[in-house]
Design a protein that fits this description.
By secondary structure, the protein is of the alpha/beta class. It has one domain: FAD/NAD(P)-binding domain, CATH 3.50.50.60. Helices cover about 35% and strands about 25% of the residues. It contains 13 helices and 18 strands. The strands form 4 sheets. The chain has a 7-stranded mixed sheet. The chain has a 5-stranded parallel sheet with strand order 8-2-1-12-18. β9 and β10 form a beta hairpin.
Length: about 400
């Protein structure tokens, strides 16, 4: 029986393992963190395409149980005026988008994988891989980890995120993540002063940044802010306290007549900030025994909120390919053919969305008029290619 070594236990790793299991392929997940990553304050959205991909492998239930739905998005100008509202893309055809803390999604997927008997080993940071042919058997892949241990399997799946070690082992000239010129800050608060109507995302175009928020059934308001800023070294990110992030966000939106600054000011220690990156294209996705999924293959800026859904789709599509094409190199080529165009289109779309912050009053007026016009004309259509994507598990891959 084929056995896969999956590097990374975030989102793509457990999903890929569960999809492979359904395809009759065994795997072990190797996670670098000692007990799984936990990002205080950070949250994410799964749109219909991501939820439907989870449903293909019967893994959507635990995610639904840890999330809440939203069906409407409204936009505000920096002046506080409402530019319009409409159904969120995908809510009319398929499940409504679900919001949940990032850590809750990690836990839900890991726990479901464990319930299905999939082994997840923690504290396994990948150092190197090698392929060797032993007498009387087919080539096997050996993975070497920083703690000195090794693992052997038939193939390696790199699900180790935007700063993927697997990607650099696969291609020493692989592009490094591109900083978008923004910092993304996430937080959550139970303050009652600025709760958003149930089932609604409120998006605010500020003079110097972009702010979005939604309120869950328990009264917690989740928010994010995309603010301009140079790339921060890892040490600086680690040392920045919630107070520093709060001050930076409130300062960015202080001159706007929106609730953005007040929501950030009412947030306690549940704040985390990160550099925003993307990778427009990754030339090499695979060789004969190693393949990339999720952010390791196609990191996208957070603006389109599709990173998690793309990773989930990858895992299910890859499992279909390995099910029907037993030679890994052929399966990997089919997977890349089915995925590359779509994910690179999402990366480009998300990067373009970062350009909506306008610097001058004239630019802001033009932007507001354009957004209002689009909101009046659009009912959520135009994104069927994105949120309407579905995976037919039963269809054979050739």
């Amino acid at each position: 029986m084929t056995h896969a070594l999956i590097i990374g236990g975030g989102i793509a790793g457990p999903v890929t393992a569960m999809a492979l299991q359904r395809a009759g392929i065994g795997s072990t997940v190797y996670e670098a963190y000692p007990s799984g990553a936990d990002h205080a304050g950070a949250f994410l959205v799964l749109f219909a395409n991501g939820l439907e991909a989870l449903a293909v492998i019967d893994a959507d239930r635990p995610v639904r149980e840890n999330s809440f739905p939203s069906g409407t998005v409204e936009f505000l100008s920096d002046t506080g005026s409402t530019l319009g509202a409409r159904p969120i893309a995908g809510s009319g055809d398929g499940p409504r988008p679900r919001t949940l803390p990032r850590a809750a999604l990690y836990r839900a997927l890991r726990d479901e994988a464990a319930r299905r008997g999939i082994r997840v080993e923690h504290g396994k940071r990948l150092v190197s891989t090698s392929t060797a042919t032993s007498s009387g058997r087919r080539p096997a892949v050996t993975a070497v980890f920083a703690d000195g241990t090794r693992a052997e399997g038939d193939l390696v799946i790199g699900a180790d995120g935007i700063h993927s070690r697997t990607r650099t082992l696969l291609d020493a000239t692989a592009p490094v993540p591109r900083h978008t010129g923004q910092l993304t800050v996430c937080g959550r608060t139970r303050a009652t002063g600025h709760r958003v109507p149930a089932g609604t995302y409120r998006m605010m175009y500020g003079r110097r940044g972009f702010f979005g928020c939604t309120t869950g059934p328990d009264g917690t308001t989740y928010w994010f802010a995309n603010i301009p800023g140079a790339e921060l070294p890892r040490a600086s990110l680690t040392s920045l306290t919630p107070d520093r992030w709060r001050s930076r966000v409130t300062g960015t939106f202080a001159d706007d007549r929106t609730p953005a600054a007040a929501i950030a000011a009412a947030t306690g220690d549940d704040i985390v900030g990160t550099n925003a990156y993307d990778i427009p294209t990754t030339p090499v996705w695979h060789d004969t025994r190693t393949v990339l999924v999720g952010d390791a293959a196609h990191a996208t800026a957070p603006n389109a909120a599709q990173g998690a859904s793309m990773a989930i789709e990858d895992g299910v599509v890859l499992a279909r390919c390995l099910r029907d094409l037993p030679v890994p190199a052929e399966a990997f080529a089919a997977y890349e053919r089915l995925r590359r165009e779509r994910v690179e289109r999402v990366v480009a779309m998300s990067a373009a969305m970062a350009g909506r912050v306008a610097a001058t009053p004239e630019e802001r007026r033009a932007r507001d008029e354009d957004v209002a016009r689009r909101m009046a004309e659009d009912t959520g259509g135009g994104t069927e290619w994105l949120t309407g994507y579905r995976i037919d598990w039963g269809a054979p891959v050739h």
